[in-house]
Amino acid sequence: MAVPLSTGSPAGRPAPRRRWRPGAPAVLLLPFFVLFTVCTLVPIGNAVHLSLYSEKRSGLGFGGVERVFSGLGNYTAALGDPAFRDGFLNLALYCLLYIPLMTGLSLLLALLLDSTLARAKRFFQLALFLPHAVPGIIAALIWMYLYTPGVSPVIGALDAAGVQADILGTPVPAVVNIALWEWTGYNLIIFFAALQAIPREVLEASVVDGAGPLRTALSIKVPLIRPSLAMVGLFTVIGSLQLFTEPMILHGAAPGVVTTWTPNMYAYTAAFERNDYGLAAASSVLLALAAAALSFLVTRFSGGRSGSGEGSAKATAKASARRSGKGGHA
Amino acid sequence: MSKAAVNGVLLLATLYMVLPLVWLVTAAAKNTGDLLGGRTLTPDRWHLGQNLADLAATGDGIYFRWYLNSLLYAGVGAVLCAFICVAAGYAFHVYRFPGKEKLFGLVLLGVLVPTTALALPMYLLASKAGVVNTFWAVFVPSLVNPFGVYLARVFCRGYIPGEVLEAARMDGAGELRTFWSIGLRMVMPGFVTICLFQFTAIWNNFFLPLVMLSDTELFPVSLGLYAWNTQTRAFPEYYPMVVTGSLLAVVPLVVAFVGLQRFWKAGMTAGAVK
Questions:
Q1: Which stretches in chain B have pLDDT values below 50?
Q2: I want to staple A195 with a disulfide (CB 3.0 to 4.6 A). Which of A21, A31, A114, A149 is the partner?
Q3: Is the predicted ipTM greater than 0.90, yes or no?
Q4: Selected residues 62-121 of chain B with any CB under 8 Å from a CB in chain A
Q5: Which site among B97, B153, B223 would you substitute to test the A interface, given the most A Cβ atoms closer than 10 Å to its Cβ?
Q6: Which segments constitute the ABC transmembrane type-1 domain (chain B) (predicted)?
Q7: Per-residue DSSP letters for A63-131?
Q8: What is the Cα–Cα distance from B96 to A12, expressed in whole angstroms?
Q9: Which residue of B lies nearest to A195 if distances are taken between CA atoms?
Q10: Among A167, B47, A169, which residue's Cα sits nearest to residue B36?
């Protein structure tokens, strides 16, 4: 924190000569925390609670519904369901393909855009970002049309060139492509902004030391923007696990995309087609736990390395040395 | 690396990003036959006027009803949400109070919770409270954005110098008055940024309305287009309307992002670098 701005002392003793009004922070914080409690904390608690119960219908369903405690029964039921496991498998394949591709592509484009050779930087930034302004459902609709043989000019062109493409028959790459289209530009902007913030002296130093553009990019620039990489990684993991809209749209056109194709779709189907809220809650909780575990791993890896990683430490040290050396003149 | 190679790769990536949008524009101007026949990337046989007329006529203009709904959910929701976030972020920046960093940690934890995992439990709570299938079921959850609070705190740190607040207090302004007349004004670029991102998020939201709403009169555009799209198998005449409707639904967002470039760039950097 740059500017300490206390109006009261930490111990609660009023600081001299300042009117301490304990009401102000409370009034400002209250709306957010009331809504946060109602729309986030309570639903989480409710989901955990629900996941521990199952509903038993007596007779033909006319006798009313009875809720019975089933412990981890819903969890074992979800994990024992091949459809749920398939959903996780699809999601795992999707993540394995999407996360490295998207991060790599947006990093590569950001580095190219940051290089002195790139032209029309503002134009490229905006054009590459534009797909992010398109709602996910509309992005999925556009690509569904572009994937459909007969409708799609792309498939038509490929056909004319003698390439048989059955994109709708391979759902994982089809969904990965939609996500790539939506998110590469967004993350590119984050990386580009971080690259632009690197002090120019550091880059000059690496040129003086004889590093080429490729070496500078890999050994200086990338380690220096590690915090941005970590943040993008974190948000990409959280976002990827929620995969729902795109496969839901493709479901209408691609027979391979079943209604339980991702864990999120499984939870939705369990709740609204099977009316099994306990199972739906349990699968939502499992998904959230997976997200928490993966986010932990991502922050752990990126955070742990940035401190001890040699390249990064050296580059940072060099940067600060250069900055303090040149500071007087500038 | 040569200049040609660098710019060539960038141009190729731009084509990949822009061509689907070009397709959307030209496809929105085709009739059912041309659209389904793949004759879409050519500028001839213009049919946009007819498609718009169909869009306005179908279901007594229900599409434009959805459009207004979206504007209401996203417009009012985004402004209110940004205000709530900035108030909280300002409080975290300006005041010291017991348990502050723990409370902020809770906010950061909220950023990590997958929102779609919340939609279902939220539906169940809403049905207990009897608000399922109402405006409020979609509107109220869209006012919460923990990441917005985080951003607001970062922005306040950058935009509001302590001396100004001290001066306001010397002049006898109360704390809330100081927030309203000084703090909020100074952090306006941050306010606009959070507002823009929240507008997009609400406009794009699909899962929550899908879970909460069954009355088509309350649908936002995203859900309405989804509903139409599921009917295209049986009624192919819906195809051009889904595509034309999609084009119209993208327009406000593209306009907002092109017009407010410096704000979203500032917002994304504030979140990423600090």
A1: 274
A2: A114
A3: no
A4: 84-85, 87-88, 90-98, 103, 107, 110, 112-118, 120-121
A5: B97
A6: 67-259
A7: S-EEEEE-TTHHHHHHHH-HHHHHHHHHHHHHHHHHHHHHHHHHHHHHHHHHSTT---HHHHHHHHHGG
A8: 9
A9: B273
A10: B47
Contact B169 A18 (CB under 8 A): yes
Name every chain B residue with its beta carbon within 8 A of the beta carbon of A228: 272-273
pLDDT at A58: 59
- Short-list A121, A83, A19, A94, CA closest to A267: A83
At A7 the pLDDT is 44
Chain A from 67 to 86: CB within 8 A of any B CB: none
Q: How far apart are CA A177 and CA A183, in angstroms?
A: 10
Determine whether the interchain pair B117/A287 forms a contact, defined as Cβ–Cβ distance below 8 Å. yes
| Identity of the amino acid at A319 | A
**Contact with chain A for residue B8, Cβ under 8 A:** no
List CB contacts (< 8 A) between B98 and chain A: 10, 12
Q: Encoding tokens for residue B144?
A: 């919460």
Predicted TM-score (pTM) of the model is: 0.85
Q: Which residues pair with A54 in a beta bridge?
A: A68
Is B272's CB within 8 Å of A190's CB? yes
Å between B49 CA and nearest CA of chain A:
21
